[in-house]
Design brief:
The protein has helices at about 10-20, 30-45, 50-60, 70-80, 90-100, 110-120, 125-140, 150-160, 165-175, 185-200, 205-215, 225-240, 245-255, 265-285. The chain is mainly alpha-helical. Helix 4 (about 70-80) runs parallel beside helix 6 (about 110-120) and helix 6 runs parallel beside helix 8 (about 150-160).
């Protein structure tokens, strides 16, 4: 209840964690209880390595994970990744379970995106898992059931994990291009999508054109934070899809709203490389 309401009471979380940690075993916890517990601690931003280790060790020690529903499994992985709790054995146990399933038809889009997001965020690599999830998504008739954030998180995860799947990227791009508009995409979702395509080396000029047209149609970029804006520039520059009008709009937004000296080195370098690409493109167009 506290995590859903986005309220945190550290003393309460600590008391509950201490109680669970002190238990001889977690055999009385149902799979959903385990999932809800670590999800709540991660969502509330309440770190507790000993609690996560106890839950992780319990799950690893189970004979199988057949009693866990897809949402429960994906939420557990999401929680460990979100909380920064490394547990390679847990991730392998869940990966092996998912890979062993006949199909992923019981997995909702959020389950799929949360799973690959968790593996990528935790730095846990399992090509077999990514291949199975990519194959499932590719075989779907359409991606209409995927929310913008789920589409974005999925390709972001594949790009971040370095897992190649051209057909998956093509399917996601074709879906986005076919949408009536991109108004349901938050700036972060748009940014992560084009960043993922650029990072993965997946060329798709029509997708980049569609996203650029959407951004240019906006009255202003106040909803784009500094990271969103800088990654948009980096993605377009890295994908050799420099749009000078788009660059000017993003540049003007950054100039008016950002103190460059306050940016971290990675963000500064990303913006600098993007500007260099834009300058090169401008010179070529004039010659």
């Amino acid at each position: 209840a506290f995590s859903k309401a986005e309220e945190s009471e550290p003393r309460l979380f600590k008391k509950i964690a201490d109680h669970i940690i002190g238990l001889e075993h977690l055999n009385l916890f149902k799979p959903q209880d385990l999932s809800n517990t670590v999800w709540s601690f991660a969502k509330a931003g309440e770190p507790n390595p000993r609690l996560f280790k106890k839950v992780g060790d319990h799950i690893i020690g189970r004979n199988d994970l057949n009693s866990f529903i897809p949402q429960g499994l994906s939420n557990i992985l999401w929680a460990f990744a979100k909380a920064g709790e490394s547990d390679p054995k847990l991730f392998k146990k869940v990966a092996d379970h998912i890979i062993g399933l006949n199909n992923l038809d019981s997995f909702e889009p959020q389950d799929l995106s949360n799973t690959v997001w968790a593996f990528a965020t935790a730095g846990e690599s399992d090509p077999r898992l990514f291949k199975k999830i990519a194959g499932h998504i590719i075989r779907l008739n359409n991606l209409d059931s995927f929310k913008p954030q789920e589409l974005s998180n999925t390709v972001w995860a594949f790009a971040t994990a370095g897992e190649s799947s051209p057909r998956l990227f093509q399917k996601v791009a074709d879906h986005i291009i076919g949408l009536k508009d991109l108004n349901t995409f938050e700036p972060q979702a748009l940014t992560n999508a084009v960043w993922a395509f650029a990072k993965a080396g997946e060329s798709h000029p029509r997708l980049f054109r569609r996203v650029a047209d959407h951004i240019l149609s906006l009255e202003n970029l106040q909803s784009f934070n500094t990271k969103d804006a800088s990654q948009i520039l980096w993605a377009y520059a890295s994908a050799d899809s420099v749009d000078l009008v788009l660059f000017k709009k993003v540049h003007d937004h950054l100039e008016a709203n950002v103190d460059y000296a306050s940016l971290d080195e990675d963000t500064q370098n990303a913006i600098l490389r993007a500007y260099q690409k834009a300058e090169h493109a401008s010179t070529k167009s004039e010659s």
